[in-house]
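Slide 14.
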Amino acid sequence: MPSAPQLLDVLSYLQLAGQLLLVAHLVRSGLRGAYQSFLFLLLASSVREAVLLAVSSRDLSLYGVLYVASAPVIWLGYILTTLEIYGRVLRGYPGIASVARWVLVAVAPVSVLGSLASLLPEMAESARKYFWLMAESMITRAVCGSILAFLLLISVFLVWCPVRVARNTVRHAFLLSVLLLVQTAALLIRDSGGYALNPWLNVVFGVSGLILVLAWLALLQPAGEQGAVVVRPRFGAEDERRLLQQLDSINATLSRSTRK
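Slide 15: predicted structure.
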Protein backbone atom coordinates (compact mmCIF):
# COMPACT_ATOMS: atom_id res chain seq x y z
CA MET A 1 0.00 0.00 0.00
CA PRO A 2 1.41 3.44 -0.89
CA SER A 3 2.43 5.67 1.99
CA ALA A 4 0.60 8.91 2.77
CA PRO A 5 3.39 11.09 1.28
CA GLN A 6 3.34 9.06 -1.94
CA LEU A 7 -0.43 9.37 -2.22
CA LEU A 8 -0.20 13.07 -1.48
CA ASP A 9 2.32 13.60 -4.29
CA VAL A 10 0.03 11.86 -6.79
CA LEU A 11 -2.99 13.81 -5.55
CA SER A 12 -1.06 17.09 -5.75
CA TYR A 13 -0.20 16.52 -9.41
CA LEU A 14 -3.78 15.44 -10.20
CA GLN A 15 -5.24 18.46 -8.41
CA LEU A 16 -2.82 20.80 -10.18
CA ALA A 17 -3.88 19.34 -13.52
CA GLY A 18 -7.54 19.64 -12.53
CA GLN A 19 -7.13 23.28 -11.51
CA LEU A 20 -5.46 24.14 -14.80
CA LEU A 21 -8.27 22.38 -16.68
CA LEU A 22 -10.79 24.39 -14.67
CA VAL A 23 -8.97 27.62 -15.52
CA ALA A 24 -9.05 26.69 -19.21
CA HIS A 25 -12.73 25.77 -18.93
CA LEU A 26 -13.67 29.13 -17.37
CA VAL A 27 -11.77 30.99 -20.08
CA ARG A 28 -13.02 28.95 -23.05
CA SER A 29 -16.65 28.87 -21.87
CA GLY A 30 -16.82 32.64 -21.43
CA LEU A 31 -17.32 32.42 -17.65
CA ARG A 32 -14.09 34.18 -16.69
CA GLY A 33 -15.81 37.57 -16.56
CA ALA A 34 -18.35 36.32 -14.03
CA TYR A 35 -15.76 34.52 -11.90
CA GLN A 36 -12.68 36.74 -12.01
CA SER A 37 -11.85 36.35 -8.32
CA PHE A 38 -12.32 32.59 -8.48
CA LEU A 39 -10.05 32.53 -11.51
CA PHE A 40 -7.44 34.48 -9.53
CA LEU A 41 -7.72 31.94 -6.69
CA LEU A 42 -7.27 29.03 -9.10
CA LEU A 43 -4.25 30.61 -10.80
CA ALA A 44 -2.63 31.52 -7.48
CA SER A 45 -3.23 28.02 -6.11
CA SER A 46 -1.86 26.44 -9.28
CA VAL A 47 1.32 28.53 -9.29
CA ARG A 48 1.83 27.86 -5.59
CA GLU A 49 1.28 24.11 -6.02
CA ALA A 50 3.64 23.91 -9.00
CA VAL A 51 6.43 25.78 -7.20
CA LEU A 52 6.05 23.74 -4.01
CA LEU A 53 6.08 20.48 -5.95
CA ALA A 54 9.26 21.58 -7.71
CA VAL A 55 11.16 22.31 -4.48
CA SER A 56 9.66 19.71 -2.12
CA SER A 57 12.19 17.00 -2.97
CA ARG A 58 15.19 19.35 -3.05
CA ASP A 59 15.08 21.78 -0.16
CA LEU A 60 12.61 21.36 2.71
CA SER A 61 13.67 24.65 4.30
CA LEU A 62 12.92 26.55 1.10
CA TYR A 63 9.66 24.62 0.80
CA GLY A 64 8.60 25.82 4.26
CA VAL A 65 9.52 29.43 3.50
CA LEU A 66 7.62 29.44 0.19
CA TYR A 67 4.64 27.65 1.73
CA VAL A 68 4.23 30.24 4.48
CA ALA A 69 5.11 33.26 2.31
CA SER A 70 2.54 32.36 -0.36
CA ALA A 71 -0.31 31.65 2.07
CA PRO A 72 -1.58 35.28 2.24
CA VAL A 73 -2.22 35.22 -1.52
CA ILE A 74 -4.51 32.20 -1.03
CA TRP A 75 -6.30 33.88 1.88
CA LEU A 76 -6.87 36.93 -0.31
CA GLY A 77 -8.21 34.67 -3.06
CA TYR A 78 -10.71 33.08 -0.67
CA ILE A 79 -11.90 36.47 0.56
CA LEU A 80 -12.26 37.93 -2.95
CA THR A 81 -14.09 34.82 -4.17
CA THR A 82 -16.53 35.06 -1.27
CA LEU A 83 -17.11 38.75 -1.96
CA GLU A 84 -17.71 37.84 -5.59
CA ILE A 85 -20.41 35.37 -4.54
CA TYR A 86 -22.01 37.98 -2.29
CA GLY A 87 -21.98 40.45 -5.16
CA ARG A 88 -23.76 37.98 -7.44
CA VAL A 89 -26.38 37.02 -4.85
CA LEU A 90 -27.02 40.60 -3.74
CA ARG A 91 -26.72 42.17 -7.17
CA GLY A 92 -30.08 43.89 -6.82
CA TYR A 93 -29.37 45.03 -3.26
CA PRO A 94 -26.18 47.12 -3.33
CA GLY A 95 -26.78 48.56 0.14
CA ILE A 96 -26.91 45.13 1.77
CA ALA A 97 -23.98 43.95 -0.35
CA SER A 98 -21.85 46.92 0.70
CA VAL A 99 -22.45 46.31 4.41
CA ALA A 100 -21.77 42.58 4.03
CA ARG A 101 -18.54 43.38 2.21
CA TRP A 102 -17.32 45.70 4.95
CA VAL A 103 -18.23 43.21 7.68
CA LEU A 104 -16.26 40.43 5.98
CA VAL A 105 -13.27 42.69 5.36
CA ALA A 106 -13.34 43.71 9.05
CA VAL A 107 -13.88 40.22 10.50
CA ALA A 108 -11.02 38.54 8.60
CA PRO A 109 -8.20 40.70 10.09
CA VAL A 110 -9.73 40.41 13.58
CA SER A 111 -9.72 36.61 13.23
CA VAL A 112 -6.09 36.70 12.12
CA LEU A 113 -5.00 38.90 15.04
CA GLY A 114 -6.96 36.74 17.47
CA SER A 115 -5.24 33.62 16.17
CA LEU A 116 -1.79 35.16 16.55
CA ALA A 117 -2.60 36.47 20.03
CA SER A 118 -3.67 33.01 21.18
CA LEU A 119 -0.68 31.26 19.65
CA LEU A 120 2.25 32.64 21.64
CA PRO A 121 0.99 31.89 25.19
CA GLU A 122 0.23 28.27 24.24
CA MET A 123 3.50 27.60 22.41
CA ALA A 124 6.20 25.68 24.20
CA GLU A 125 9.72 27.07 24.04
CA SER A 126 10.86 24.05 22.04
CA ALA A 127 8.25 24.78 19.36
CA ARG A 128 9.18 28.43 18.82
CA LYS A 129 11.27 27.56 15.77
CA TYR A 130 8.05 26.39 14.08
CA PHE A 131 6.26 29.64 14.88
CA TRP A 132 5.59 30.69 11.28
CA LEU A 133 4.28 27.27 10.24
CA MET A 134 1.99 27.15 13.26
CA ALA A 135 0.90 30.74 12.68
CA GLU A 136 0.09 29.98 9.04
CA SER A 137 -2.01 27.00 10.10
CA MET A 138 -3.97 28.95 12.71
CA ILE A 139 -4.50 31.95 10.45
CA THR A 140 -5.66 29.73 7.59
CA ARG A 141 -8.11 28.06 9.95
CA ALA A 142 -9.39 31.43 11.18
CA VAL A 143 -9.76 32.85 7.66
CA CYS A 144 -11.45 29.72 6.30
CA GLY A 145 -13.74 29.49 9.33
CA SER A 146 -14.78 33.14 9.01
CA ILE A 147 -15.46 32.81 5.29
CA LEU A 148 -17.37 29.57 5.86
CA ALA A 149 -19.60 31.36 8.37
CA PHE A 150 -20.33 34.06 5.79
CA LEU A 151 -21.14 31.48 3.13
CA LEU A 152 -23.53 29.79 5.55
CA LEU A 153 -25.16 33.17 6.16
CA ILE A 154 -25.68 33.70 2.45
CA SER A 155 -27.14 30.19 2.25
CA VAL A 156 -29.62 31.03 5.00
CA PHE A 157 -30.44 34.26 3.17
CA LEU A 158 -31.16 32.36 -0.05
CA VAL A 159 -33.34 29.82 1.76
CA TRP A 160 -35.28 32.49 3.65
CA CYS A 161 -35.65 35.14 0.96
CA PRO A 162 -37.14 34.67 -2.53
CA VAL A 163 -34.10 36.13 -4.30
CA ARG A 164 -33.46 34.84 -7.80
CA VAL A 165 -29.88 33.81 -8.55
CA ALA A 166 -28.14 31.91 -11.32
CA ARG A 167 -27.80 28.16 -10.84
CA ASN A 168 -24.04 28.50 -11.20
CA THR A 169 -23.93 30.84 -8.21
CA VAL A 170 -25.74 28.34 -5.98
CA ARG A 171 -23.49 25.49 -7.09
CA HIS A 172 -20.34 27.60 -6.76
CA ALA A 173 -21.21 28.74 -3.22
CA PHE A 174 -21.99 25.16 -2.15
CA LEU A 175 -18.73 23.73 -3.51
CA LEU A 176 -16.64 26.50 -1.96
CA SER A 177 -18.40 25.92 1.38
CA VAL A 178 -17.56 22.21 1.27
CA LEU A 179 -13.91 22.97 0.45
CA LEU A 180 -13.59 25.40 3.35
CA LEU A 181 -15.43 23.05 5.72
CA VAL A 182 -13.04 20.18 4.96
CA GLN A 183 -9.98 22.41 5.28
CA THR A 184 -11.16 23.99 8.54
CA ALA A 185 -12.02 20.60 10.06
CA ALA A 186 -8.65 19.10 9.04
CA LEU A 187 -6.73 22.04 10.50
CA LEU A 188 -8.79 21.95 13.70
CA ILE A 189 -8.02 18.24 14.19
CA ARG A 190 -4.33 18.80 13.55
CA ASP A 191 -4.01 21.90 15.72
CA SER A 192 -5.86 20.14 18.54
CA GLY A 193 -3.06 17.62 18.84
CA GLY A 194 -3.59 15.31 15.92
CA TYR A 195 -0.18 15.93 14.36
CA ALA A 196 0.38 12.18 13.96
CA LEU A 197 -2.59 12.20 11.59
CA ASN A 198 -1.24 15.10 9.55
CA PRO A 199 -0.08 13.05 6.51
CA TRP A 200 -3.47 11.37 6.21
CA LEU A 201 -5.35 14.61 6.87
CA ASN A 202 -3.44 16.06 3.92
CA VAL A 203 -4.49 13.05 1.83
CA VAL A 204 -8.15 13.54 2.81
CA PHE A 205 -7.93 17.21 1.89
CA GLY A 206 -6.21 16.31 -1.39
CA VAL A 207 -8.91 13.80 -2.32
CA SER A 208 -11.72 16.20 -1.43
CA GLY A 209 -9.99 19.02 -3.33
CA LEU A 210 -9.68 16.88 -6.45
CA ILE A 211 -13.33 15.80 -6.25
CA LEU A 212 -14.46 19.41 -5.83
CA VAL A 213 -12.36 20.61 -8.78
CA LEU A 214 -13.99 17.92 -10.94
CA ALA A 215 -17.40 19.00 -9.61
CA TRP A 216 -16.67 22.63 -10.57
CA LEU A 217 -15.67 21.44 -14.03
CA ALA A 218 -18.93 19.54 -14.44
CA LEU A 219 -21.33 22.02 -12.83
CA LEU A 220 -20.09 25.47 -13.86
CA GLN A 221 -21.48 25.68 -17.38
CA PRO A 222 -22.62 28.64 -19.52
CA ALA A 223 -26.19 27.32 -19.35
CA GLY A 224 -26.10 27.81 -15.58
CA GLU A 225 -25.85 31.57 -16.10
CA GLN A 226 -29.06 31.68 -18.12
CA GLY A 227 -32.22 32.49 -16.22
CA ALA A 228 -32.44 32.37 -12.45
CA VAL A 229 -33.84 30.17 -9.71
CA VAL A 230 -35.24 30.66 -6.22
CA VAL A 231 -33.53 28.33 -3.77
CA ARG A 232 -36.71 28.03 -1.73
CA PRO A 233 -39.57 28.07 -4.27
CA ARG A 234 -42.33 27.45 -1.71
CA PHE A 235 -43.44 31.03 -1.21
CA GLY A 236 -46.93 32.17 -1.95
CA ALA A 237 -47.26 35.23 -4.15
CA GLU A 238 -48.22 37.42 -1.19
CA ASP A 239 -45.35 36.17 0.99
CA GLU A 240 -42.86 36.70 -1.83
CA ARG A 241 -44.10 40.24 -2.43
CA ARG A 242 -43.91 41.07 1.29
CA LEU A 243 -40.39 39.67 1.73
CA LEU A 244 -39.10 41.46 -1.36
CA GLN A 245 -40.59 44.73 -0.10
CA GLN A 246 -38.81 44.23 3.22
CA LEU A 247 -35.53 43.57 1.42
CA ASP A 248 -36.00 46.69 -0.71
CA SER A 249 -36.66 48.72 2.43
CA ILE A 250 -33.58 47.36 4.23
CA ASN A 251 -31.45 47.90 1.14
CA ALA A 252 -32.64 51.50 0.77
CA THR A 253 -31.89 52.23 4.43
CA LEU A 254 -28.40 50.73 4.24
CA SER A 255 -27.69 52.51 0.96
CA ARG A 256 -28.50 55.86 2.59
CA SER A 257 -26.37 54.98 5.62
CA THR A 258 -23.32 54.02 3.57
CA ARG A 259 -23.51 57.27 1.60
CA LYS A 260 -23.35 59.42 4.72
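Speaker note: The chain has one domain: 4-259.
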